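The data layer described in this paper is built around a simple, fixed record for each protein. Because each token names a local backbone shape, the row as a whole describes the fold. We quote a single record here, exactly as it is kept in our systems:

***
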Amino acid sequence: MVSVWDNAQRYARHLILPEIGQLGQRKIRQARVLCVGAGGLGSPVLLYLAAAGVGRLGIVDHDRVDVSNLQRQVLHTTPDAGRLKTESAAARLRALNPDVEVVEHPVRLSRVNVVEILTAYDIVVDGSDNFPTRYLINDACVLLNKPNVYGAIYRFEGQASLFAPHMGGPCYRCLYPEPPPRGTVPSCTEAGVLGVLPGVIGCIQATEVLKWIVGMGTSLLGRLLLYDALSMKFREIQVRRDPDCPICGEQPRIQTLQEYEANCPNLEMEGVASLSGDEVTVHELRTALAHPESGVGVIDVRERHEYAVAHLPGVRLLPLSELPQRWTELNPNQRLYLYCRAGGRSLQAVQFLKQLGFQSVKSVHGGLQAWVREIDPTFPLV
């Protein structure tokens, strides 16, 4: 391993900081950090930690680079499209700092592999974009006594914190004991996200990691930092450890890792979740479109700008955002199939209409994502 002084010029601006110096830089050099996700949050986290000289950087991501990622996932470039994100990220990080050992984990984090992967690292950065992975990371970190540097983004807002019950602070479940109901929180693919937003939150996460490694400053332990990009304001919420927390409380009910995809439904994973009684498959949707004489009405509940880019032929548009004002345009006695991009918004629309007395309304399971995967891979899904 290259010593601090073998590459003093690279780390010169750290070495002259009294709070870091040679001792602090040596701690950074010896640190082992795992980043779950090489996307919007993982990009700034990994770039800055590699630049800082973290000794070992682990990257967990099973996905491949898509051109739509590049608006915010600055770790990757246009020629990387189609490449595994771990592979693309590793090449970029090694070019940035050859001193750093980059370890690729091109897998989906799961109950089966999470303990083995996390055990090899000192601190974990949650750069994930779905609830199953967030709860899995949290629970594994609690059980393994690993600090969890959390970050999340949505449209123009972001949040960050440090979860570490073994250090006297709360865990993610102290803040959010259970995942939100299925379909109530749109993903970035449905709601959108300001491209620079994950850069801000990811830099905060990277800062927390370096502070924890060196042992300097005041961390976000016990504090949830909230950021609003539109108003350019930060605010802070105190988060205390919950004595009734299901995993880190005084009488924990969760003592082993669970099946998180079943317990934490996620809009990005609709295609692998089980079908509910309020849903039909994309194959049933195709049948309805092919046989209009069946009387099934098909409704696209995405927003107008999404519909304008691409939609299934002969399908009516009624955005979910307009449904409370326009639901009377629908026939409550007609069989209706509703779809969106991933299945979350259409399921919300179904629940709304059922409360109004609609009896034969169904959501298309997996939405257009499932349509592309199972029916027409050439459909221009954005």
About this structure: The domain at 31-269 is CATH 3.40.50.720 (Rossmann fold). The two ends are 45 Å apart (CA to CA). DSSP finds 15 helices and 13 strands in the chain. Residues 197-214 form the longest helix (18 residues).
